[in-house]
Amino acid sequence: MDGAVLKRLRADAGVQAAAGVYAGKPAIDHNERKSNEKTAFPAAIQTVVAGDKQYDQDRAIGSRTWRLRWECMSLDSDDGAVALSDAIIAALEPADTFAGVRFGRGFLVLERSGGNEDIADLPIFRRIIDLNITATY
User: Fold this and answer.
1) Which residues pair with 30 in a beta bridge?
2) pTM check: above 0.90
3) Is 31 exposed, middle or buried (0-12, 13-18, 19+ CB in 10 A)?
4) Which of 14, 21, 42, 54 has its CA 20 to 30 A from that of 35?
5) What is the pLDDT of the chain when averaged over all its residues?
6) Which runs of E-coded beta strand occur in 52-121?
């Protein structure tokens, strides 16, 4: 499901407007930030925090609820990280069908500052968000 969520985010106009660009796509990736180029900021790393498989009395059914985390990063101030996290939340809160996956409403369960630090001579500011998302395949 995390691959379908990533594709949905990259296709969202609000996310495209808020994110930097890497390899022609919004700079949101699984498990790692792909580039230190300034044009690749704001950026986000998407990770799976927890997932489940849902069942009825007889078997597993096609719905899953996962908790996904985005570590949003920007340069020089936290404005870009906050804007990107807000765009991700806005993109995933509504129920939608995308690429054959039926998504329920996304629910924000955590939002916090991730602090700041210098990495490779870049001043990185972070915002961390977690959403619970249910999807049916």
Assistant:
1) 46
2) yes
3) exposed
4) 14
5) 93
6) 63-75, 96-98, 101-103, 107-119
Using CA atoms, how far apart are residues 102 and 121, in angstroms rounded to an integer? 42
Residue type for position 67:
R
pLDDT tens for 7-41 read 999 999 999 999 999 999 999 999 988 999 999 99
Query: Residues 109, 70: contact at Cβ < 8 Å?
Result: no
Q: How many CB atoms lie under 10 A from the CB of residue 5?
A: 25
Say whether 101 sits in a helix, a strand or coil.
strand
Cβ neighbors of 79 (< 8 A, separation 6 or more) are none
Contact assessment for residue 110 and residue 128, using Cβ atoms and an 8 Å cutoff:
yes
Using DSSP bridges, classify how beta strands 28-30 and 43-51 pair: parallel, antiparallel or unpaired: parallel
